[in-house]
Amino acid sequence: MNIIDELSWRGLINQQSDEEGLRELVDSKDISLYCGMDPTGDSMHIGHLLPFMTLERFGKFGHHPYIVIGGATGSIGDPSGKKAERPMQTMDQVNHNVEALSAQANKIFSGFTMVNNYDWTEPIGILDFLRDYGKLFNVNTMLNKEIISSRLEVGISFTEFTYQILQSLDFLTLYRKHNVQLQVGGGDQWGNLTAGLDLIHKAEGQDAKVYALTIPLLLKADGTKFGKTAGGAVWLDPKKTSPYEFYQFWFNQDDKDVINLLKKFTFLTKEQIEDLAESVKTAPEKRLAQKTLAEEVTKFVHGEEALKTAEKITDVLFSGEIQELTTEEVAEAFHGVPSAEISADPINLVDLLIATNVDKSKRQAREDIQNGAIRINGERLTDTTMEINPKDSFDGKYIVIRRGKKKYFLATVK
């Protein structure tokens, strides 16, 4: 099986500029290819995983992936998929994001070459830009690209209009300097990718063997867009989305979606995934496919130790043995749950429930305590006169409160 067949059975091909030509090329030699990423923030999210994991798959077949960090393109804004102009970032913001994304990508992805398009774009003067590159772009053709035409009704600035030229210049530069012959991108980038092909053919001749491949937009079985949660994006930065939260995101995927996600987000073999598909049919209650998905993606992004911590937290929360967690694990496990600050002084249990908004009234708090609905740091307490000393648990930093079977609250000690 070659890389194109591999991508096909995983459902990772949306559009190709020349399917037969690309297949012949990757069969005949190892190629260089790239995908770009603009520094619109200081962390990748799971939407970035698919294209870069696709590059990783090419790498496993012996090809040479490049990541282009858009220090130049990110400073003007990509109009793709947007109904209005992006807010312009300062160059300090762009540079900060470039550094953060480069470090993150280098940590996650192996064997990639990282380049910044600011390095070859910044030295180009305005007259050279217009004469050497602008002259090769037909405005009518650019207007017909979906990424531009979708914005014409509300308007688009000349700055964002020229984004297509800058991204095309990336492909031309990489082709000339590193013999990069394939650009990979999301389905919404097709117009930009084909503009790059057109520029290379005009500048280097129609015989230049360059190709474009896009990955389909990932939808869940119910037709909604994959990758968003009630809390927003699922980030690859552990400070924004903890490894435990990351693990839980994958573990909680629906039976209807999990096999599709295993194909796209793991490097498991076809046989392994088929076995997991069978387990979904015969023993869905075991959630073996979801567990495997969560393990594989968490390990790939965050590493073995973070996976072990995420699994430990999962097991502890299931068993209710909260005291087995370290202070750091408590912070990770309960990141995002309802929380409130309390002083370091001992506090009556009823007053603690009121201070942390577990209950709205002292009467309700007493009832919950007497009914056995309240656990403090994993221990069920039924005495309404009990005093809780924050210094007795988790280095004096946290108190974990559970009401009922699943509702957690966190008291953070000032």
UniProtKB/TrEMBL annotation:
Localisation: Cytoplasm
Keywords attached to this entry: Aminoacyl-tRNA synthetase, ATP-binding, Cytoplasm, Ligase, Nucleotide-binding, Protein biosynthesis, RNA-binding
Motif ('KMSKS' region): 225-229
GO molecular function, one term: tyrosine-tRNA ligase activity
Annotated L-tyrosine binding sites: Y34, Y163, Q167
GO cellular component, one term: cytosol
CDD domains tied to this protein: S4
Motif 'HIGH' region in this chain: 39-48
Record-listed ATP binding positions: K228
Residue intervals of the RNA-binding S4 domain: 348-409
Top-rank taxon: Bacteria
Catalysis: reaction(s): tRNA(Tyr) + L-tyrosine + ATP = L-tyrosyl-tRNA(Tyr) + AMP + diphosphate + H(+)
Main location: cytoplasm
Gene Ontology BP term (one): tyrosyl-tRNA aminoacylation
EC number: 6.1.1.1
Subunit text: Homodimer.
Family the UniProt entry places it in: Belongs to the class-I aminoacyl-tRNA synthetase family. TyrS type 1 subfamily.
NCBIfam families: tyrS
Entry function: Catalyzes the attachment of tyrosine to tRNA(Tyr) in a two-step reaction: tyrosine is first activated by ATP to form Tyr-AMP and then transferred to the acceptor end of tRNA(Tyr).
Protein name: Tyrosine--tRNA ligase
